[in-house]
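It is time I had a proper look at our fold encoding. Can you supply me with one protein entry, sequence and fold together? It will help me judge whether the discrete encoding reads sensibly. Leave the record below and I will have a look:
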Amino acid sequence: MSAVSDNYVNLKQYKERQVSSQRSLRGINQDKAYRWNRENYSRHRRFVDIWTFVLTLLFQLWLNGKPWSYPGGMTDAKQAARRKTQAIWIRDTFLELGPTFIKVGQLFSTRSDLFPGEYVEELSKLQDRVPAFNYDQVEAIVKKDLGKSVSELFDNFDPIPLAAASLGQVHKAQLQSGEEVVVKVQRPGLRKLFTIDLQILKGIARYFQNHPDWGRGRDWMGIYEECCRILWEEIDYLSEGRNADTFRRNFRTYDWVKVPRVYWRYTSNRVLTLEYAPGIKISHYEALEAAGLDRKLLAQLGARAYLQQLLNDGFFHADPHPGNIAVSPEGSLIFYDFGMMGRIKANVREGLMQTLFGVAQKDASRVVESLVALGALSPVDDMGPVRRSIQYMLDHFMDKPFEQQSVSEISDDLYEIAYGQPFRFPATFTFVMRAFSTLEGVGKGLDPEFNFMEVAKPFALQIMTNGNSPEGNTFLNELGRQAAQVSSTALGLPRRIEDTIEKLERGDIRLRVRSIESDRILRRMSSIQIGTNYALLLSAFTLSATILFVNGQVGLALVVALVAAAIAFALIRLLRRLDRYDRML
């Protein structure tokens, strides 16, 4: 048998195992029942369920800071273990609370700048493989949205879904014309559930915003608004279809990227029909080997595809986990699920690269400036402490050349710097860093020697040099970079002066003027006032001791006299210090 035939047999066996595992998974999902897995929801019941979780979490957070709650005493190891246990509980509770919280948990898994690492790690494992809803409901939604029954629209429609998630499920079908498609149908009652849950979450966000501890320096209402925008966009299948079309157009000249075509005649707000584009999941390494595909090349292509989206197109897949990327038998990358997409402007792209370069080069000033430009850092009157914190982290944790840096390590360092500081990374920034880290993990799985930063370097240099070739004499390149930096500073100087004048006019800048002579006089007056008080106390205690001694209270008079002696000693020290300070000035 030829090598091609062997590869075909191995690939066929892999697909059979995949189908078998999917069907067994569906059986497991059907056995698990969730209260939210229904079409009609009770607002009062949701309110009780959600606030019960929030209040329980608040009590646990309060308990975390109490030493008596740790058997044998509070240690860092015990605190970390407790946070780990709480993180697992939070992840499981989000799954129990349903689609809204599953998606919110997945969004929070990108916010290492806001939440402890244990929480982020567990939320990143949050999978929304949930029970499928009934086929009768699928038929009802299709008929209501598309105006015709399933049998009228499709020649064949598999009632068993290929996959079921929190927001919807996917069925394989065949059009009357014979074309094979997949039909994505939204979960019944999802919009009503989102409306109820987001109203409750708004009250929770407002509570945290006004909290004296957890609300300080955190824009919880802004985070809530960002979550609302992302969630509503993700359940609009018309928007997802437009995203898929835009993504496909951006890669129309690349034969190694494939994007399923949208069938708009069979698409609505709750139904999305796409071209059937089967492939091997990019993290199924054995199957890729069996198909005779070059894993090293696939790792390079995956990184190049994302860098093309981010740095050239400005329109990127915000959730490129292995389940959303497959490989065709010909070796092309297939992208799925365009509900969560990000857009990034040219100046933001440059700012992102400035941040990465600043971290890699241990340049705290460059990192601060780029983060302020990105809106990830709120400028304050004194940026010195923030800059010193960044420089400390860079000096102690970044000890490799740029080409050997790991994206996940850089992002972890940035989030470590941000946690507890006035950093508030925008959602776009966190999506980009998460995608970088995910793709780096996939790349290393495909090729242990894969280095994402090495692939990114040509793209980054192209952005930083405005398209000029980075090749040539290193000294001349560095000289040109320094000249460009000086010219940029010179051109930006008038704007910075104007901004400073505007801040002075608005009263945003406070000037501190210190007069040494005035300070000396004030300090002398304060010391004289304290000395006067000591003298009055000394006189009072001396007189009291004399009266007590005359009246025969010798013991009590001795105690009062000792107090008077202590006051006299303090008064003498004050006078000597005041005299010495006058001689110095």
